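Annex B. Sample input.
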Amino acid sequence: MFFRAVPLVLVVSSLLSQQTTAPAANPSGMYTFLKDGEFLQLTVEDARNVTGFISRYGDSDGDRGTFLNQFLKQGKLEGNKLTFVTDTVHAVRFEFSGSISRGPGKTPAEEAYYIVQGTLTDYRTSADEKTASNSRQVAFKSFPQDVK
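Annex B, continued. Sample output.
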């Protein structure tokens, strides 16, 4: 009986070690974005679904300096793997693929308790309907949270 159980234990422990782990607590909150004053708001709705928005400054001729909100039209958190796609606002949409993990902050009341890092791609559609994309590696730090 012992020898039959050993392979099963090895298979189960191997599968468990390959799983990604979610952050210990709920990582919902505000995070830095590309420029000072811009931010990413993430809300983990349940085990997988993520909602939120990006608040950013417009950078085209028609909206330069205007504060724009772009809501996530789809977002998922599977373990620590985070993906999202925003709505298109003023011919720009964002896609993100990466992870969310604990950062150097010691408590949620400190900046960077969580870090969202990965690849952010922005897609811009011109007046002649051509779409250009730009990808970059990013790391967004959580804002300090009020702890009661």
